[in-house]
Amino acid sequence: MRSHREALKLVGNLQAPGNKAMVIWSVFQCHRIMKEFIALDFEGHPAIVKEISLFIITERVDPTEILRLTSRMKKLEDECAAVTETNQKLRSSHADFQVTFMGLKRTVDDLKNELKQLKTKK
Predict the structure, then answer these.
(1) pLDDT tens digits for range 32-65
(2) Are 22 and 11 within 8 A, CB to CB?
(3) Residue 68 domain-assigned?
(4) pTM summary value
(5) CA distance 104 to 113
(6) Fewer CB within 10 Å: C terminus or N terminus of the chain?
(7) Boundaries of domain holding 9
(8) Is the residue at 102 inside a domain?
(9) What's in the keyword line of the UniProt record (predicted)?
(10) What is the Cα–Cα distance from 32 to 9, expressed in whole angstroms?
């Protein structure tokens, strides 16, 4: 489309019939090229492929950066698994302590009741 727009840059007087015809012709050419883009889903047209390739070259990610991030992610996943395992152990341990505590509380309550009974007998 650039070549069709370039021709219009030099047009000064848009009222002249020749210049009007040039504008109309340029618009039709741009529509024709857009139909080509649409037919190829904007991916296979040479103009788009050139721009995509340029973007990939200028904005690509260094493979060492990908490897570094992958190893960091693996390390974090391992740490997460370790923390999850520790959390499960702590929860299990907490449940055991809670059962033990409830048993001790019953024992203390029983001893208090026995003490009250002994005081009332005297």
Answers:
(1) 888 888 887 777 777 777 878 888 888 887 888 8
(2) yes
(3) no
(4) 0.40
(5) 14
(6) C
(7) 2-59
(8) no
(9) Coiled coil
(10) 20
